[in-house]
Amino acid sequence: MKLKREYDELIKADAVKEIAKELGSRPLEVALPEKYIARHEEKFNMACEHILEKDPSLFPILKNNEFTLYLKETQVPNTLEDYFIRLASTILSQQISGQAAESIKARVVSLYGGAFPDYKILFEDFKDPAKCAEIAKCGLSKRKMIYLESLAVYFTEKYKDIEKLFGQKDNDEEVIESLVTNVKGIGPWSAKMFLISGLKRMDVFAPEDLGIARGFSKYLSDKPELEKELMRERKVVKKSKIKHKKYNWKIYDDDIMEKCSETFSPYRSVFMFILWRLASTNTDAMMKAEENFVKS
User: Fold this and answer.
1) Which of 118, 172, 209, 254 is catalytic?
2) Is the pLDDT of residue 16 over 60?
3) Most buried among 3, 136, 215, 240, using CB within 10 Å?
4) Ranges of H-type helices in 65-171
């Protein structure tokens, strides 16, 4: 607890220095506009309050654009079928552009008369070679056919367990383990993204995500004291999976990112959105990517 308080104090101290540099003698205002608050759901507003209390310098990132995932107007009850379609979309979009993924999904929808097939229908259709051939013609590789069938089997055979699993709270690791163990093509990263966009879990953090790594590099670039403290207090080193890549920004190891993110717990999912925005150099492209993430 003592160490966490020290990190919190360093984050806030570095933030105050940065704000003072930019604002000079102008007063600091970190209260989100009432209209902004009214449009977002309560748990997101609570997250913003917590994050700004920890680091006021993040105010502009939060204020400048709405967060589609947390808008009241986008909140609808999700069914087991909705979860299946979201995970199926994740599989379809792997290793290809968003536009290509949308095109493939649209062809699947067209094949099934205007709606994405539910898991029970796909479970039966994967037993029929002729139907499998029709699905594959929509643009699915052999590997993605295997992945999609695996997902349909998982939902069909374990739907009662899944309903219970997805309906519980504070079981993020259990959800990740179940998806990764039972569904071919769903790894830890995909499972974490589903926790955020599908189950709306608020305390997820994925240091292995390239955008998060880039945003974190920018975030820490003006916090020298915090960086020194994080480096000094390392106990267990968890190497970044993207460490070997050549980028023009510094890549931090996973343990450094995770330790820093703990300051913003239990709202690290929102902190991830902030880091994604910090990583972007094109606001319009960033907002479009967020919208696609919410829909996928």
Assistant:
1) 209
2) no
3) 215
4) 80-92, 98-111, 119-125, 129-136, 142-167
